[in-house]
Every structure is written in structure tokens, then in C-alpha cells.
Amino acid sequence: MNMISCWEKMLTLISPLENGDIEEGKTIFLDESFTEFLDFCKEKGCFPTEDVFTVIRYGVCDYEDGDSNYSEENYERKNQLLNVLFDE
């Protein structure tokens, strides 16, 4: 039996950024925030549904403090997501 995690399944549903959007996406990722970058990818149609977007957004976040802006990211998952979005 070939089993994959929910995270791995979500990654298969994502479309990479179009070639014309990659540079802008990299700029947003580097100069703004990861959340802004995800919003950009959502606007460009990388996520097929709002549910997939939500699972991806919170799948990268290991911990989030609801009382402040503090959060911790899972860098392995973040890198996997970036590889899919930038088609690397």
C-alpha cells in the first residue's frame, strides 16, 4: 500500500507560478512576507480551492500565538512548497 500524508497530497494539487509571475513572486517572498507571497500565489490561481490554500497556509505553520503576531514555521514544508510553486 502506497500511503502519502495529507501535506504531500495537498502539494500535488498546487499549480506552479507561470513563468511571467516567478520574478514578482520571488520579490514578494524576499521583500515582503510569506503570507503576502501566499496571497499573491492565490491570486495567480496556484491553489485550486480556498480549502487547499488554508491547509497549505496552516500546514507550513507549526505554532501560531493567537494573542500576538508570533509564529514558527516548518522550514522543510516551506521549502517543499516553494519548490512546487517555483517549479524547481
Model description:
- With 88 residues, the protein is mainly alpha-helical.
- It contains 5 helices and 2 strands; from the N terminus they run H-H-H-H-E-E-H.
- A two-stranded antiparallel ribbon has the order 1-2.
- The radius of gyration is 13 Å and the shape is globular.
- The chain starts with 5 loop residues before the first helix and ends with a helix.
Helix proportion range: 55-70%
User: Shape, please?
Assistant: globular
What is the number of strand segments? 2
Distance between the termini: 28 Å
- Uncertain regions spanning at least 5 consecutive residues: none
Sheet-strand content, in percent, reads: 5-15%
What attributes does this structure have?
globular, mainly alpha, 88 residues, two-stranded antiparallel sheet, 59% helix
